[in-house]
Amino acid sequence: MSYEVMHDDFMLDKLNEECGVFGIYGHAHAPDLTYYGLHALQHRGQESAGIVASTGEQFLSHKGMGLVTEAFANNALEKLSGKHAIGHVRYTTAGGSQLVNAQPLIFKYKAGNLALAHNGNLVNANQIRSHLERQGSIFQTTSDTEVIAHLIARSGYDRIEDSIKEALSMIKGAYALLFLTENKLIAALDPNGLRPLSLGKIGDNYVFSSETCAFDVVGAEYIREVEPGEMIIVDEDGLHSERFTQQTQRSICSFEYIYFARPDSNIDGINVHQTRKELGKKLVREFPIEADVITGVPDSSISAAIGYAEESGIPYELGLIKNRYVGRTFIQPNQELRAQGVRMKLSAVRKVVEGKRVVMIDDSIVRGTTSGRIVNMLREAGAKEVHVLISSPPVMNPCFYGIDTSTREELIAATKTVEEIREFIGADSLGFLSVEGMIDAIGREDHAPNNGHCVACFTGQYPTEIYPDTANCVDK
C-alpha cells in the first residue's frame, strides 16, 4: 500500500505564505551567498528552491523540489558561478507543486535573457493570461508569475526598465519582484507594499531580501525597505531608484508581523519578536485570565506568550515541545492515525501543566482542527483548565495576495461564532485580539488606512480590486 506525502493537519491549520526572494549584485561568491540567504528564508517556502546566476555573459541555473538543502544536493551549487544572482524559495497549495513552476523563471526577450523571482500573488493573472493566449502567447508554466514575463517580452520599449514598468502598470495584486539580466539586478514592490522587501549591502555589493534575517546570515548591512511603487536598478553604474507609479498606499500584510516573518527580522524598522511580545501584552489587557501558567504553541507564538506572561505576572513555561526532526508525515487513510500526526509534531510537558490552569497562546486559528487536538493534548497531560488566546483577530475572509486561503468555507471563523469555535476546540475560554489592538501593538506609524496594514482577512476590506475569478488564480 502506498501513501501520498502531503501536508498534515498541523500544517493545514496554519496559514502558509507563498515564498521568499533573495538577490545580490557584483559579488564574487554570489551563488553561495544566495544559497545561504535562501536557507535563512526557508520558513517562507519548503516546496522548491532555485538560483539563477549571471557571469555577465550567460545564465547558469539550478532548481529543485524540497528544502534548500534537498534542492541543492549532490554538489549542485558548485555548478553555479557568476557575480550576480537571484534565488527563490516557494510554498504552494495543492496541485501547484511541480518543478516546472519552481522559480526563478528564465525567459528570452529581445535584448537577451531575463530571470524573474516573485513573492506574492496577482489578482488579475487569469484575465491577462486569457487575453495573451487569445493573441497567441504560449505559456510554459501554470504560474501567475509567467504573465509578467510575457508582458515584458511584448513591450515595445528598448530599455528593460521601461518594459518592466509597462508590465507592472498592467498587473494588480501583491508582488515583491527580483529581475536579473546578464548585467542588471532590478527590484520592484507593488503599490501597496503587501509583501516585505529590504535593501542591504555587503561591502560595495547590493543585496535584496524578503526579510532582514538573511542579511544577518550573509553579513550584509541593512539600508532600507524598498518602497511601494518603487523600482531599484543595480548595474555597473551603481544603484538608482525610479517610480513605476505614484499611486501608492501602504498595506503590508499583518501576518508578516504576527506569524510569517522570523522573529529576528525587522520589517519597516520594527522587530518581529518585540512586536509579537506586544501582541501578547495587548491580549492581557483585552483578556485578563486567572491562571497558573502561560505557554505558547511553538514556534511563532512563543514571543506572544512571553509578552502575555510579562504583562500578567503569570509564569511562562514550555508546556508544549515541538519535535524539530519531523518533516512531512505520511497521511494514513485512518482518522485515528491522522490525529497522531499532531502528536508527532507537538508534545505536552505533563510536569508543567498537570493540575494547572493553563493559558495557551497561538497566533491564529484557521480551520480549528489542530487547536482542538492541542487543547485535548493538554487536558490529557493533566491540565485543570485550558484557556486559548489568539494574538490576531479571527480570520474570516480569504487572502488573494499569496496566502493559501482561497475560500471562506475553509475558515472556521467565517462560519462559527467565537463561542461556537470555543466549543469546537474544547477550550474553557477563547479570545481573539481585536483589529484595533493588533494595529496598536505593532506600532507602525503610517498615515495610510489601518496604519499601513492589510487587514482584509479580518475585515473583508481588500486594498486592491478583487476580480470575479480571483479565487481561481493559479497558485505559484
Automatic annotation (TrEMBL):
* Catalytic activity from the UniProt record: 5-phospho-beta-D-ribosylamine + L-glutamate + diphosphate = 5-phospho-alpha-D-ribose 1-diphosphate + L-glutamine + H2O
Question: Where are the catalytic residues?
Answer: C19 (nucleophile)
What pathway is this protein said to act in by its record? Answer: Purine metabolism; IMP biosynthesis via de novo pathway; N(1)-(5-phospho-D-ribosyl)glycinamide from 5-phospho-alpha-D-ribose 1-diphosphate: step 1/2
The record describes how the cofactor is bound as: Binds 1 [4Fe-4S] cluster per subunit.
The first-level EC class reads transferase
Q: Which residues bind [4Fe-4S] cluster?
A: C253, C399, C454, C457
PROSITE patterns according to UniProt: GATASE_TYPE_2
- Full protein name: Amidophosphoribosyltransferase
Query: What species was this sequence derived from?
Result: Caldalkalibacillus horti
- Write the lineage as a comma-separated list: Bacteria, Bacillati, Bacillota, Bacilli, Bacillales
The gene it comes from is purF
